[in-house]
Amino acid sequence: MTSLSYQYAEALFSLSVEQQKTSVMKSELERFISQFEGQLKELLSHPKVAVSDKKSLIKGLNLDPLMNHFLYVLIDNQRLAEVDAILASYQTILDQQTQVLRAKVFSSKPLSKTELEKIKIALQTKLKRQTLLENVIDPTIVGGIKIAYEGNVVDHTINHFIASLSETLKA
To answer: What is the residue-level pLDDT of the chain in tens, covering all 171 positions?
Structure first.
């Protein structure tokens, strides 16, 4: 996530708050990104295609007018390639505003729904925020789990325990 993409995301978020379309803009940005492949990407990225033609292509996608204008700005500033990073930044801003925590739970095997629910409840209780979990399978983990969120890591893996024990024995 670059600071430039974050600035564009902040601008879009501010405008979407004014028009009460914060989740609509996220959906529209996701919809555009899903269509921004193949020939459309080539045309919108090609330097010899006129800006007016690029804007006509955007208009033909039938997106929300606010999203159209936002994409026009990206075209004018030659920043359309940043659209994925802008979406990631927009999601971060939206999560901050709605008090949503996104966390990754690393484990050696897929966790059951019950296990994930217990972890989710524990995080929600501790951090007092709605929590969304993603279970990431890491075959290097011998046992236990590691939880990563907002730059924090809670490591309850056997790997971590063994490393700590090894450091203690060296001292």
So the answer is: 568 999 999 999 999 999 999 999 999 999 999 888 878 888 888 888 899 999 998 998 889 999 999 999 999 999 988 999 999 999 999 999 999 999 999 999 999 999 999 999 999 999 999 999 999 999 999 999 999 998 899 999 998 888 888 888 887
CATH code for the domain of 73? 1.10.520.20
Could you give the C-alpha distances from 50 to 37, 56, 101, 132, 164, in angstroms and in order?
Answer: 19, 10, 42, 42, 60
pTM of the model: 0.76
CATH number assigned to the domain comprising residue 106: 3.40.30
Domain limits at 110? 99-170
